[in-house]
Amino acid sequence: MIGDRPKAENNTDIKAVYYRETPNVIFVNTDAEKADLKETQKGYTFISLNNNINHLFTISAQGQSCKDKLNTLLYQYAICAESISITAIPIYYLEPNTRIFVTDLESGINGEYIVQRISYQLSYNGTMNITATKAVDKIY
């Protein structure tokens, strides 16, 4: 019989209950550094720092939050994994961990899937096999 199954996990790597979102801000020391970063880092706000307050900033690792771990456990254990296997003409730019949209009215497949594995046949008329699992939306 399939029923409710409790899942308990002890994790000492969790550092906080949740973290606030990181703002899209980059602090820079000089205008030259600001100009260099503006070309490569799109979508950020750049703030120039005065050398007098530069010592107030430190770089630190954030660690894992309880909320992130809970979301991972819900995704792994609370949702029934739906997977598909596709045989098609090779699409060479497709890579694992890519989100694809699949529609097949005949077999009732319709939705977004995440590519898990791709294999190609090395012949002139070869095909590719894709194994993918259903991309589940967040529960909350």
Give your account of this protein's structure.
The chain is an alpha/beta fold and 140 residues long. It is 16% helix and 31% strand. It is built from two helices and eight strands, in the order E-E-H-E-E-H-E-E-E-E. Strands 5-8-7-6 form a four-stranded antiparallel β-sheet, with no helix packed on it. Strands 1-4 form a two-stranded parallel sheet. It has a two-stranded parallel ribbon with strand order 2-3. It is flat. The chain starts with 13 loop residues before the first strand and ends in a 6-residue tail after the last strand. 2% of the residues are buried.
Low-pLDDT ranges: none
Biggest sheet character: 4 strands, antiparallel
Mean pLDDT score, rounded? 84
Order of helices and strands: EEHEEHEEEE
Query: In one word, what is the shape?
Result: flat
Structural class: alpha/beta
Oligomer: single chain
Radius of gyration: 23 Å
Strand content: 25-35%
- Terminal CA distance reads 28 Å
What strand order characterises the main sheet? 5-8-7-6
- Could you estimate the helical fraction of the residues in percent? 10-25%
Output the number of helix runs. Answer: 2
Counted beta strands: 8
Which short descriptors sum up this protein?
single chain, 140 residues, alpha/beta, four-stranded antiparallel beta sheet, two-stranded parallel sheet, 2 helices, 8 strands, flat
